[in-house]
Amino acid sequence: MKQIARNIGYSFIAAWVYILFNGVLLFPAIEPTAFVSSTHIVSSLSTGLAGLVLALLSVKLFSLERHREIVYLAGIVGAAGTCCIALAGSGFLAAEWMSIGYLLVGIGMAGLKCAWQERLICQGRQATVFSLAVFTCLGAGLCLVISALPFEIALPIASVLPVLAAFFLLVKPVQQEDGAHGSRGVESMGSDDAPVITIGDSFLHAPVRLFAVIALMSFAYGSVRTLGILDGALVQFGNDFLLSVGCPVIATVSATLVVFYARKFDTAVVFYIALPIMAAVSLIPLAGNPVLGAAAHGIASFGFELILTLALFLIMDSVAAKRIHALFGVGLLWFSHMIGTALGQIVSESISDQTMITILTLVLLLFAALVVMGGAPRFTIAPSSSGERDPDRSGSAGRAGDGRLGSIALLAEKYGLSARETEILELWGTGHTSAFIEEKLFISKNTVKTHLSHIYAKVGVSSKEDLLQMVEGHDEDR
């Protein structure tokens, strides 16, 4: 029950975010599409920078669980920002207060989102999928209910949502069993015996290339959000509003399920689904059509949520291996996401030529595709070629593996093994089973067999035993 209560906190965050970025409640007296869009840029920048600050502070903080005052402060700041936006949008405050409100909202959103995702990572994959799907829907439903209330009632409820979110997020969970993972749980990084991990080590072991891809794809997402949902549907009530809320909800739930079931295949499959979707949406003429804009925003959200959900899973791997703190991973995730989104919004506001925006977006997506093709298999955490011990190993397998990784690296270079083949050989050659490799790399049993057969062919052996003897032979030669 306590775990459910903590995730109810996310439903309050989701409702709060939908209210903020659809504007039905907060802008009843004005319809300043361009102005609202520019304030969303302020919100994106402040969210991204606040996420970066939390990531850099993770060495000192370990976890927001141990620094509850930060989460409560984020809730209070978010509530203050919501009041500023609503009062400025209603004409009770000067228009400048709306920018101040979005600045405060961005800071509060970063703290609350990082706190929730930090806890989500510690629940494991199955609980993550369940929480994303169920509590996103609950949040959207709550948003619709609040937005239908009279302004005098809805405003205080909307303003208190981030404070309620902070309260529920900090409900103390039942202690996880040691070594649990997934529905089997991940060790909390907020415990007193949490490892000391420097910022340098965190950047070394975090999926940094994945964050670069997220930043590039966020640019496309930001431009679609500005040209689509902010062009009309933002401040309307009725079917357009239902569409602008419903499409992102459906996108989030479906993307979460796709990533969860795609984990049995190569992780690059998710990118190969997401990138064409983002490219296709960037080609749709959105200006002046709020319904089409809202639908396009939902499709873009699906493509982008695929990458965000995958990022959570890969950060989860890094945390489980005690390579990074969860707070560092989610903070950096929000930094790359929101800074990229802000840049997309800025370009959409600055360039009036839709064709130029589309070309720039497609070029950046092409760069993202090149990064994926060049590095996607290495996004998943695996033993390093430097001989560092993988914390998932134990006993003789771990001791044998420590001295064998260098030999495997030499063998891989000699026979021209690919990055994925080297990764699988590192795991298998250091005593791990095929089942472990499937779970570790999010690939199927058949995929493992296929890669091993390619390795056999390249090095000139016909069985696992022959391959192991060759690895051991290289080890002895060293």
UniProtKB/TrEMBL annotation:
Domain HTH luxR-type intervals: 410-475
Chain segments annotated as transmembrane: 12-30, 42-63, 70-93, 99-116, 128-147, 153-171, 210-229, 241-262, 269-288, 294-315, 327-348, 354-376
CDD domains: LuxR_C_like
Name of the protein: Helix-turn-helix transcriptional regulator
PANTHER family: DNA-BINDING TRANSCRIPTIONAL ACTIVATOR DEVR_DOSR (PTHR44688)
Superkingdom of the organism of origin: Bacteria
Pfam families: GerE
Keyword Transmembrane: yes
Recorded coiled-coil stretches: none
UniProt KW keywords: DNA-binding, Membrane, Transcription, Transcription regulation, Transmembrane, Transmembrane helix
